[in-house]
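Supplementary Data S3. Sequence and structure tokens for construct A.
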Amino acid sequence: MNFTAGPAPVFAIFEVAQLYYAHRYIGPAQIRRKLYPLDTSVAPPPYWFSIAWIVGLGADYGYQVRLFLVPFGLIRLMAFVMIVVSLIGFMVRRHCGLKWGLVVMTFEGALRVGLLLESFSFMVYPPRWLHHLGGNL
């Protein structure tokens, strides 16, 4: 197995966990009640959890850049799309409210999870048609 492929499922699980916590803290119930996420009765996460989450986000985006540096064409394309989706998501979320921010984050996370798992499958199990093209992903 390619050593670059190994962390992909871990980061896919991280993306799903990020969506879970976003829905928990900025969920539809808080949006319907027009509550700001930091003012709700839900206890904020502990300090160490926040630091670990920031480190996880940095590692996730670092992994996307690392995938972009892999010399295989399709993997680089998927990494490029993941980076572009992340940047567009940041820009859109910055200029919309909580309700649409949650929708954008969900859509962005779903795209990134799909691309991570697809790049993992291409690195671990290259398709048969690839051998006819010279084996270059």
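Construct B, processed identically:
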Amino acid sequence: MDFSDGCTLCHSELDLRLLSSDSAPDDLLISITRDPHDHWAPEQWAALWRRFAPRLIALVADHAPDPALTLRSLGPLYANLRAWPDDERRAVEDALAALLLDALAHRPSWALVELLGGLASTDDDLGPWLARIDAAPGPAAAGGVVRLAHHWLVDLLWGEDNWFAWWYPDDPGALVREWTSRAVGRVERFAEAHPECKTARDALIAHDHLERGEQSPWIYPGWAGYQWEQRGLPRGYGHPEPRNT
């Protein structure tokens, strides 16, 4: 497709010509995925992703800033991945699933949550991606499940549910509660196999407090740092911070 009649509000004529060549720089591709949906026609969004999907997914894998915003451009108002022919859609979804499983094994929980929000925005549905996590085999994936469960369970205890910057479900807390309830068995097995793992132990403590409707046993971040400073101690402190420190 010729992209020369694309969005000239955000991009130069040279940029648009580069999109029709193999010379489009990475920063241009990332910039385009962050354009408002009405700056490009639906067929142009789809053509951009079909042409550059391998590079864009590789950029997200290489820790491009704000990956959720890049992936949002696969959503219904943009490239509309769910409307693609089955073989093309599955190829992109499989590449994204590989990215997700690598993040599950190797990235911190906050980065995994950010990525999940972007993946959910591609079809307005988090469920299929959480199902991929549920089915992920091996010890590295199990460790990722423990980290994610801990992250979300502690947030739920603190009343936090602002996880997704570019995806807006009606009740994100309900979705996360459902998954953490499912994941608890896997966390329990991990804790039994690795009794030294504090993250697994804390995840189970958080789950128990949620089930009983009890207050978090940890001080909300920031308050503990203030308490440390009042004692003349460095502000660096553990997460989560026990209430009795």
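The mean pLDDT is 89. The radius of gyration is 21 Å.
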